[in-house]
Write a structure and sequence with these properties.
This protein has 134 residues and is mostly beta strands. It has one domain: Jelly Rolls, CATH 2.60.120.380. Helix content is 3%, strand content 38%. The protein has a 5-stranded mixed sheet, with no helix packed on it. The N and C termini lie far apart (34 Å).
Length: 134
């Protein structure tokens, strides 16, 4: 499986099931910036990130980039960053505020990077879920 260049959105259905697309990163070092095409609406979006690293010192950091004003009129608050995501841990981000994080293209931008050793690989898997209105 090739390393992710964007993150697919899995639109969940009420009272149903859905086969989930999981995006992975297995080898790239440094930060990786990925687009999430949410069609301009991010308030029902959740990002699940699992650190699949094998070295206990290889933690991950995740940044949801500030959007562009307009349409993100609260973009001035800035990006949201979470560091120190431990090896073998799973973290969920969201729901995500459209007014703060959406870009002019209707996409979110997320940066996933290794906090570990200088040449450590950021090994992770990610799923983006769009929750239904019920």
């Amino acid at each position: 499986m090739a390393d992710a260049t964007s993150l697919a959105v899995n639109t969940l259905v009420a009272n149903g099931t859905k086969a989930i697309t999981v995006d992975v990163n297995t080898a790239a070092t440094g930060a990786r910036t990925l687009a999430i095409d949410v069609g301009g609406l991010s308030d029902r979006i959740a990002l699940r990130l699992k650190n699949n690293g094998t070295d206990a010192t290889n933690t991950l950091s995740v940044t949801l980039s500030a959007g562009t004003n307009p349409p993100a009129f609260r973009a001035g608050i800035g990006a949201f960053t979470k560091t120190g995501l431990a090896t073998a841990s799973t973290t969920i981000f969201g729901p995500v505020e459209t007014a703060r994080f959406i870009g002019t293209d209707g996409k979110l931008s997320v940066i996933i990077a290794s906090d570990g050793a200088t040449n450590a690989a950021a090994i992770w898997e990610a799923c983006v879920y769009k929750l239904p209105i019920v």
